[in-house]
Design a protein that fits this description.
5 helices, three-stranded antiparallel sheet, 106 residues, Arc Repressor Mutant, subunit A, single chain, 13% strand, 3 strands
Length: 106
């Protein structure tokens, strides 16, 4: 697994960060807006945002003193690629099982 994929999985490993990703999927938000949804300090939310940014899952734009955070959909690509391998694995296994069952019933 490459570093980009590892960073994305690390970012998604925490339930708070998964919640942040879901919120940012609906709208771009400042750190203050996000902090209002959690029982933690602004500094703690900022640490979560840093991990998400390192994972390529979010980006931010500085507007004056505010930092607007937004979801980076392309950041999910390494995770989806890794999961697709297992889709193919199970598709092949289930197709083999189907063929075996149908061959037995004939």
């Amino acid at each position: 697994m490459n570093t980009q994929t590892q960073n994305a999985f690390r970012a998604l490993a925490d339930p708070t960060r998964r919640d942040i990703v879901q919120m940012l999927a609906s709208e771009d938000m400042t750190i203050a807006q996000l902090t209002g949804h959690f029982d933690m300090t602004r500094a703690a939310v900022k640490k979560h945002l840093t991990v998400l940014s390192d994972g390529g899952l979010i980006t931010f734009e500085a507007r004056g003193r505010e930092r607007i955070n937004r979801l980076e959909p392309k950041g999910m690509a390494p995770v989806l690629d890794w999961l697709r391998y297992f889709d193919r694995f199970w598709d092949d296994r289930l197709a083999n099982l189907k063929n075996a069952i149908e061959g037995t019933n004939r």
